[in-house]
Amino acid sequence: MSGLTVDRRGALALGFGGAAALAWPARAQDAAPAGLDAAVDTIVANFMRAFETPGIGVAIVRKGQPAWLKGYGVRTMGRPGPVDAHTRFGIASNSKAFTAAAVAMLVEEGKLGWDEPLTRYLPEFKMHDPAVTGMFTVRDLLVHRSGLPLGAGDLMYFPQSTADAAQVMRALQFLRPVRGFRTGYDYDNILYIVAGILIERISGKSWRAFVGERLLAPLGMADAVTSRELLRTDNVAGRHARLGPPVRGVGPMRAIKPDEAPLIDAGAGINASVTDIAKWLEVQLALGELPGGKRLWSKDSAAEMWKPQVIISSSDGGTDANPARPVMSGYALGWIVQDFRGRRLISHSGGLSGQVTQTAMIPSAGIGVAVFSNTEDSVSGGIRNAILDHLLGTAPSYDWVASYVRRNKQAQDEAIASTSAGDAKPPGGKPSLPLAAYAGRYRDAWYGDIVVTAKGKALHIEFVPTAAFRSVLEPWGTDSFRTRFVAGTGEDAVVTFAVADGKVTGVKMKALSPLADFSYDFHHLDFVPVK
Asked: 507 pairs with which residues across the strands?
């Protein structure tokens, strides 16, 4: 996602929400009582009611006080299992700060240098431009200034595919930049996969093992695992989304299945409870120091990880619609740094299919907040902001529920405006060739192959690396067709064939829904016929 928007994969939270739409308008929030327990209960209840949220987990840490931990609602709608302080959620891109900390530990040991060329450690690393390859440093892996487009390459692991780490490394040279190297900010996941490869190459241990042994274990994060594959409990939050009609992000809430690949673990793989994440926030606020005095990383490394490296956004500050809008926000090493109500906020968000999570700290106040949700709606960001306001004693109080309802309603209205008769509205035009003429095998350099076949009176498409992407193709304008993937299986795509002299010369795509998460980066694909 881009710097000022939030969606379910998003790792970029400014605490304002994404594109998922509401089932009904919410009433204004009830006033939050003064006591912490009652205040948080009221805040969470207001949002859960407005967004039909099945379950929420909250952690609050305050200097010199025990962590405040609580679960609300149920793990999966329609089932009785409650969310509690030990329910595991996929923390998604909040995992990136763990990867940054792992790199920082290797830097402290003298095994890596932040500003050393990456090819010193990974000689096979190649970007599209050889000059960029030569300049690319270890630091550049973690700060989203590579020049790659937003979400570049994400279709290799959202949803799960056959791609492996070696294929990801090879794919980088075929992903075309959209801006100059280090000239601006575009969020990616793929370079965190490379960071995981780097950690393994240098330490001799897999990313999973290194993070588990060097971070999770010393912190006592007993509920946490470094990959969804390693979960061995039923106390796991379910996944929920609005699957339409007419498009994903609109309609009633439904339970869905996880779909992320283990390949993304270094960028989005950790599963943890709010009990675990409180310990992570505490060691962050302590600048790497554990309660007994032992250090995981130095104060210098803590400062390095919180130092902005690239500007995400700038503005004139708060407005009536968003009183906490930052004057400036930047991306550091696995963290977003911005101002919030006149203080420095260190934060991140994480989104997977069916879950969105938030972590946030205000170091000057000695407080940290985490909010985990089992839905794609933007509820976690709103709860985060409301709790921060309460902890900071912000006055007058602001109606964050109404603010989020307005934003989501606007996104919903824009999506519905592109639909007709309960379904997405097809454009004018029709196929210019007999259906059999579109059939064939087509290849994209970084993703792999698709196979289009003519069966009876319809075309069908198979995304060879991604087993979940199999569908009939329905006519959708001139030489274009849309998919009909199984409900809950990612996002549908519009598939457009380039035709010249009666033959298909290439295939391009885009997501069907205007609310589609950026990780469905169909628009980065450029297929050519395989001869």
From this structure: 497, 527
Beta strands in 251-335 (DSSP E): 253-256, 271-272, 310-314, 328-331
**pTM higher than 0.85:** yes
* 8-state DSSP, 289: B
79 Cα distance to chain centroid: 26
d(Cα 505, Cα 521) in Å, to the nearest integer? 21
Query: Which segments of 251-378 does DSSP mark as H helices, in order?
Result: 265-268, 274-285, 299-305
- Measured CA to CA, the distance from residue 240 to residue 20 in angstroms comes to 11
User: From the CB of residue 366, how many other CB atoms can be counted at a distance below 10 Å?
Assistant: 15
Phi, psi of 353 (to 5 degrees): -55, 115
pLDDT digits (tens, 9 = 90+) for 141-172: 999 999 999 999 999 999 999 999 999 999 99
SS3 of residue 73 by DSSP: strand
* Distance in angstroms (rounded) separating the CA atoms of residues 219 and 201: 24
- What single letter denotes the amino acid at residue 406? R
Residue 263 near residue 163 (C-beta atoms within 8 A):
yes
3 state DSSP class of 92? helix
How far apart CA 359 and CA 341 sit, in angstroms, is 17
